[in-house]
Amino acid sequence: MKKIKVTLVGGGSTFTPGIVKSIALRAEELELAEICLFDIDKERQDKVAVVVDWILKEDVKCDIKLTVTNSAKEAYTGATFIFAQMRVGGYKMRELDEKVPLRFGCVGQETCGTGGLSYGMRTILPMIKVIDDVEKYAEKDHWILNYSNPAAIVSEACRKLRPNARIINICDMPIAIIDMLAASLNIKDVSNIRYDYFGLNHFGWFTSIDYKGRDLLEEIKVYIKENKVLLPPQHLEKIRKNKSTGDRHAVSSWLHVWESVYTMMESFPDYLPNTYLTYYLLSKETVEHQDPTYTRANEVMNGRERDLFAGVDHYLATGELKEDTFYAGSHGDWISDLAIALKNDTHARFLVITENRGALPNMPYDAMVEVPAYIGKKGPEVIAQNPVPLFQQGLMMQQLNSEKLIVEAAIEGSYEKALQAFTLNKTVPSMEVAKQLLDAFIKENGELWPTLK
C-alpha cells in the first residue's frame, strides 16, 4: 500500500503539536510516511516545529518525515489529507472580533454573533484559495478536513463557491461537551457513547445520548440540575479552590458558558444545548459577564499561547520539554480518527457539517447543517434526524440566513447584504446598532475583508 502524507494548514497553531501527536500515534492505521506543516507565518511555525520534531523523535519515537514549509506547492504536492486550521488575522484580529461588539453592548465572541461574521469575512477567500491550491497539487483522492472557524460560514462559502471540493467541515465542541458529560457521570470509555444531534455549527442540540443501554441524557439533566453547571466533580473542586485563593481564572469566560447550560435547560429541558447557544439565548447576561478589556482572546494569549512558546524557549535553552508546553487530546484525536475512517472505509459515526439534503426534513435542502453521519471512503453518509421542533427551527433559520447573507456579501462585495446579515443576527438589538458594528468592523479589518460597496 502507498504511504501517505498529511499536511497541516496553519502549522503555527498552538493546536498543531497535539494534532501531530494524535496523527503519529495512528501512523500504522494511516500508513503514514510524512507530516508537513504549512503556514504563512514562518517565525511562528518554526517555533512550533521545534515541539513537533520532539514529539516525533522523542515522545512517540517514530520515523515519520517532518517537512516545514511556507510554500503551498511543497505543502500540498503528494498530500492525501489536508488538515486546515487557519486563523486569518491571528490573535490580534480575534481580540478585535471579541472587543468591538462589546463597545456597542453586544456579545463579543470569535465565532458567534458579529465577531463570528467579522471572522468569517476574513476567512472565506483564503479557504477558497486552499481548496484551489490543494486541487492543483495534492493527490486526486485527497480530503480536506477543515477545523478553520467560523466553520458554519466557511462551510456555506465552500458549498456555494466550490460545491465539488473534497472537503469535510468539522467541529470538536460537541465532542468536548460529551467529554465533560462522561467525566461528570464517571464514564471512562467515551468511545461507547452514541448520540443524536441536530443544528448548525455552534448552534445545535443533543436529542439523545446513550451508553450501553443507559440513557445519559436523562442522567446528565439530573446532574446539571443538582450542580447548576455542566462540569465534572474534579473541575468543580478546582474552581472552588481557586475561588478561595482569589484566582481570577476561576471565573473565566468558559466557566460562565458551562454554567449557562443549567440556565438554558431550566427553561428548555428537552434537549442538551451546545454551550455556544449561550451567546444567543443569554446575550444580555453574557455581555454583563464579559470584561470589555480582557476577553477570551486575552485568556488564550496569556495561557495556551504563552505556555507553548515559553516551553519552546525553555527546551531550546535546556533540552527539557515541560509537561504543560502543549496539550494533546480529543481535538487531535477527532480529526485523526476521521482521516482513518475515510482512508480505511470504516463507516464509523461522526458529527459533521454537511449539506442538509433532507437530513433535517423541515430545514432548507441546501442548508449546511451539523448532524451525525457514517464516514467511508466516499465521504459522509448522513443519518436522517426527526423534524426540528418549531422553536429550534425558528432560531436556526434566523442564524442560517444571517450566515448565508454574510457569505453573499463577501462574494458580491455588498455592503447592504453585510448590513442585513448583522441586523438579522440574534445578538444585535437593532438595525442602527448593526450599522455601527459593521462600520467599526470594516475599519478594523481593513484589507483583510473584501471591499464592500
TrEMBL record:
Residues at which substrate binds: R94, N149, R296
Cofactor(s) annotated in UniProt: NAD(+)
Gene3D superfamilies: Lactate dehydrogenase/glycoside hydrolase, family 4, C-terminal, NAD(P)-binding Rossmann-like Domain
Catalytic machinery residues: D172, Y276
GO annotation terms (biological process): carbohydrate metabolic process
Source organism, top-level taxon: Bacteria
Residues that coordinate or bind Mn(2+): C171, H202
Cofactor binding, per record: Binds 1 NAD(+) per subunit.
GO molecular function, one term: metal ion binding
UniProt domain Glycosyl hydrolase family 4 C-terminal: residue ranges: 197-428
Alphabetical UniProt keywords: Cobalt, Glycosidase, Hydrolase, Iron, Manganese, Metal-binding, NAD, Nickel
Pfam families linked: Glyco_hydro_4, Glyco_hydro_4C
Site label Increases basicity of active site Tyr, positions: E110
Annotated family: Belongs to the glycosyl hydrolase 4 family.
Name the record gives this protein: 6-phospho-alpha-glucosidase
